[in-house]
Predict the structure.
Amino acid sequence: MITVEEYLDATGRALSGMAGIVGGLGDELASTRPPVQGASSPYALLTHCLGVVDYWAGALVAGRVVERDRDAEFTASGPVAPLIARVDATRVQLAADARAADFAAPLRAVPDQSFLGPAGIATQGAALLHVYEELAQHHGQMEILRDLLRPQSTVDTARLRRGTGVKWGAVAPDTIGAWVADMDLGVAPAVRHALLDAVDREDFGYPHWPDGDPVPAAFEAWMAGRHGWTPSGGHTRVFTDVLQVLQVMIEQTTRPGDGVAIHVPAYPPFLAAIVRSGRRIVPLGQSPMDGVRLLVLVNPQNPSGRVYRRAELEAVLELAERHDLPVLADEIHADLVYAPHRHIPFAALGPEAARRTVTTTSATKAFNLAGLRCAVAHVGPPALRARLDAMPPDIFGTPSTLGRLATVAAWRDGAGWLERLRATLTANRAAVSAWAGGLPLRYTEPEGTYLAWLGGLRAPAPAAWLEETARVRLSEGAEFAEGTDIDTGDCARLNFATSPAVLAEILERLTPRLR
């Protein structure tokens, strides 16, 4: 036989645990139902638990009038903060009701059979025991919901090392890969199912799309629904990756010797593509625009993680208009932006922006599909569309059927998984920021991407030095300004798209070297 205080400690732990899970999931995920038949959202399950406490302890034990709509509890949704406040108030009320109860006394009302309580409950003690049993059971369910709503929280590094991925395959067995921009957090179930279904059908022949290539339609619906921009029909072309789109746009809009303007530091393969094409890198905002024929805007920016505001984008548009430049807007990280920041598609600034912009993106970053090679380019300039359409149809190559199927599955059915992923990345970003704040580093918390740009590192080639001494591979900062006179040699880029446990080990290994 437990005491009232022991009872309140047990029920309080269950309520606090569930409230902690709901609070941790936040407004974006707490009201989401996981993809399991019959499952409630965490918000609804906690609402139901509060209904159980109100009715069984409040109405049947304390004798208060309680109005309850049990069915509505299981469909409840809303902001998290008021629900957490209600939990706190319910705990206080339950403590008062339990302390005032006579455990052997009869109930103050006849239980409503539609509420599905167990038969034979006749005393106040039995009703309070039922409250505890319900809370304990639902606390366990809540933990399952949490795990279903978050992407995998553990990473099998041995599996990653056995695979073909360069992030883990190119490092020594005792070294952690935190460099190239791949994630360790798996893929959306919808993508996995689409690929496995194709494998089961042995569907690897020449593709046939009776209703047309599904990738442009999936892209257009995704952009409209997620970013509030409706791409123009018929303007979307499918490529193998964003780097190919850049290469094609360089060839189609510039000549050898021309300048290509881009923010520096920048994604190293972009810089290399410009140089290898015989064009000049012109760092945006740091060099004159003489001879520039193409402006490349990477938003969110890699490696800084900067998400450009509307006023900043309008300033870029004014620059493009003044010099009559086409704009290649690389928005591949658009779906990985952290609140309160918001991605604004460059082409959505207005008709003039849309007319001169080629928007390129892919599902590969947000959905972890880089090796499947499928990207899109929404080509705004009419003359450029005409030139592309006049090219031999196979000169650019085409993505595989599997790449297309994975991309369509991600954009059509992967939104729930993406929100769960974003919750993990948000927590990881906070961990990196807290860690960096205690070290003598130059660091600004990224507003998008899963990449942290670290400056003020003391070794001449800091990433190589850290790999040698801490057994963690980062991306070398100098590579992000190669071909320019901008000095990023004391910087390195850290990829935090991994499990919290692996990230903790990364930071623990780096800390003594960076103090």
Notes: The chain has three domains: 4-149, 157-187+416-514, 212-409.
